[in-house]
Amino acid sequence: MASVLVVEDDPDVRSALMRELGARSHAVRSAGTAMDALREVTREPPDVVILDLGLPDLDGAEVLKMLRGVSDVPVVVATARDDEPEIVRLLNAGADDYLVKPFSAEHLNARLAAVLRRAARSGPAAELTVGGLHIDLDRREASLDGAALGLTRREFDLLAYLAARPGRVVARRELLAEVWRQAYGDDQTIDVHLSWLRRKLGETAAAPRYLHTVRGVGVRLAPPRA
């Protein structure tokens, strides 16, 4: 079973899609506009989005770009045009797959299953280790040199995101988008959470061991130098 967000402004089509997906045991939510879709994705990210391009408030390609700014959720677009330039444009804008209207329920479910399989194969490792720092993503537990860290939900998400990219400087804008699921925000929010994390890691900004701030750029997590 997957969590599916159906973005479709036609109430009859939306109801039909939700009925079909629900019959396949998926947990289905819906949105009728681009803005509602963005709110749903940031509030509770689904496993996959089915996106109709004929929305009343925004062009489909713009919606894709905005979705990609706040989430890496797989997106299957539904388009009435079956020409190569249009399909290339959609894939370049961030679509993972597409469906040409009209499409059958069997075709829809086959495309969804393929996208979900690809997403599962490309998912992150279940455990991350950076120096003495160990993170269990399934259990949502983190430890340092064998001692549990006792992180809050947001602290864990921030640490896990950085640990999945060891040695790389991660921009603050990326952290806002991927950890906080916000396209825009206040850098102070990140600074506060980094301060809390450093305290639990037994370090300070002036004397970092794992968390290194690159002024004007972002944050880098790396193992302590021997």
UniProtKB/TrEMBL annotation:
Domain of life of the organism encoding this protein: Bacteria
Modified residues (4-aspartylphosphate): D52
DNA-binding region coordinates: 125-223
Sequence ranges assigned to domain Response regulatory in this UniProt record: 3-116
CDD domains in UniProt: trans_reg_C (cd00383)
Ranges that cross the membrane: none
Keywords: DNA-binding, Phosphoprotein, Transcription, Transcription regulation
Residue span, OmpR/PhoB-type domain: 125-223
Family annotation (PANTHER family): DNA-BINDING DUAL TRANSCRIPTIONAL REGULATOR OMPR, REGULATOR OF RPOS
Protein name listed in UniProt: Response regulator transcription factor
Protein species of origin: Actinomadura sediminis
